[in-house]
Specification:
single chain, alpha/beta, Rossmann fold, N-(1-d-carboxylethyl)-l-norvaline Dehydrogenase, domain 2, 2 domains, eight-stranded mixed sheet, two-stranded antiparallel ribbon, 10 strands, globular
């Protein structure tokens, strides 16, 4: 199978390696210097015209621009390998595809596959989600191999939401690690943070079980165990040098705004946003969460 991967950073190259391992012919769409070791093209639109499956693997803030350049069409199946909720518009990234392009069939990819470990050929797993069975199946065929299991799901909303939430909750894991609060607090962040996801997911019609799977608990556990996970690094940095992490502030705010529209509380997500904005010191934020009124699980 020929497929295009838009993005030649470490994650894009890792996906290309997985695709090659699965017996396919990936081509990387890049901007700037051509990637070493992979076929590719700087002409993103031409690349999309030549393939059916397009994986988008650029940073969250670059997704809109790359889609505008690539302009995938109705013949393409576009799968977002980037996690998050588009902060400026509040759109899920798959909605952004349909808003910016003529592509009709979309999906999302998530799960505990970290680029550095994939590049080192360590076993990993992903979940490909789409309301269109063909999109999920095509993604599975593109990436499934002895070094990466790819599962399919029809719960696109749940997988996208879990991916967005994990980006924020991984910062909380880094905060707890830097404050040396112990594994118990990290376990609380994983379980209660994903409980927030289930509550919001329920309001949006997602499958609550998704948050207990690869895109939810799987990816968050992997983030907490990898010392160089971007969210964990940011959390440690906020407890050291401090400062403001604008990207985290925007992403947490987008999730909280979505939750407020559906009358759902996200206290842990709100706390991460407050820490990242410099409004509350990390230790005080944890103390405030621990002092919340007792309730049932």
């Amino acid at each position: 199978m020929n497929l295009a991967i838009l993005g030649s950073g470490q994650w894009g190259r890792s996906l290309a390696m997985l695709a090659a391992e699965a017996g396919n012919q990936p081509r990387l769409g890049y901007r700037g210097q051509p990637p070493r070791g992979f076929a590719g093209s700087p002409n993103l639109a031409a690349l999309c015209r030549e393939v059916e499956l397009v994986l988008v693997a650029v940073p969250l803030e670059a997704v809109g621009e790359v889609l505008s350049q690539a302009q995938p069409g109705p013949h393409n199946r576009v799968v977002l390998a980037t996690r998050g909720l588009q902060p400026e518009t509040g759109l899920w990234l798959t909605d952004l595809v349909k808003e910016r392009t003529d592509c009709l069939r979309v999906g999302a990819l998530a799960g505990p596959a970290i680029a550095a470990e994939v590049s080192a050929r360590r076993p990993s797993a992903l979940v490909a989600a789409s309301p269109y069975d063909e999109v999920a199946a095509l993604t599975q065929k593109a990436l499934h191999s002895p070094i990466c299991r790819v599962y399919t799901s029809s719960d696109l909303i749940g997988v996208e939401m879990a991916g967005a939430l994990v980006r924020v909750l991984s910062v909380a894991v880094g905060v707890a690690e830097a404050l040396q609060l112990g594994v118990g607090v990290q376990a609380v962040i994983v379980t209660r943070g994903l409980a927030e996801g289930r509550r919001l997911g329920r309001a949006l019609g997602a499958d609550e079980g998704t948050f207990s799977g690869l895109a939810g608990v799987g990816e968050l556990v992997a983030a907490g165990k990898h010392p160089e996970h971007p969210g964990v690094v940011i959390g440690r940095r906020l407890c050291g040098a401090g400062g403001v992490e604008e990207a985290v502030v925007r992403e947490a705010a987008a999730l909280v705004a979505l939750a407020q529209r559906h009358k759902v509380n996200l206290p842990l997500t709100e706390a991460v946003g407050a820490i990242a904005a410099g409004r509350v010191k990390p230790r005080l934020a944890i103390d405030m969460l621990m002092r919340r009124e007792a309730t049932s699980e």
